[in-house]
Write a structure and sequence with these properties.
The chain has 134 residues and is of the alpha+beta class. The chain is built from 3 helices and 6 strands. The chain starts with a helix and ends with a helix.
Length: 134
């Protein structure tokens, strides 16, 4: 009876794990501390603010987003882009004391995790073409 019960439990666990849908998505190798909270996607990149600023502008231009507003200071950058459907993309960059850059993105008023992840992957690719080494 004990063997039968353990076999049933083992088979149930196997079926449970095999039936789970894999949602593995390519993650940017250079990003760390990725987080999605209340519609805002944030991550940390080990690069300079200047390199990240250039990567954001190039990535958004490549994505055919329209730049509405941009403000840069010594340690922060803020962007507002819109797509052809007038949906806003807000990006904030902040240089941390350890030389990394924290990026926060929000699409629309509610956020869109998958689209933010795609933008983050493109930013990572752009940083690599600029010569950033992670």
């Amino acid at each position: 009876m004990k063997k039968t019960l353990s076999l049933i439990v083992m088979m149930s666990c196997t079926l449970l794990f095999c039936s789970c849908k894999s949602t593995a998505q390519k993650q940017p190798a250079g990003a760390s501390q990725e987080r999605y909270f209340l519609g805002t996607y944030s991550a940390v990149f080990p690069c300079s603010l200047r390199m990240m600023d250039k990567a954001v502008r190039e990535t958004c231009a490549k994505s055919r987003l329209i730049e509405v507003n941009r403000s840069n200071s010594i340690t922060t950058c803020s962007y507002l882009y819109k797509d052809v459907n007038n949906i806003p993309l807000r990006i904030n960059l902040e240089e941390c004391k350890d030389g990394t850059v924290k990026i926060k993105m929000k699409i629309g008023s509610m956020g869109d995790k998958e689209s933010c992840q795609l933008i983050l992957i493109e930013l990572d690719n752009n940083l690599r073409t600029q010569g950033a080494q992670f």
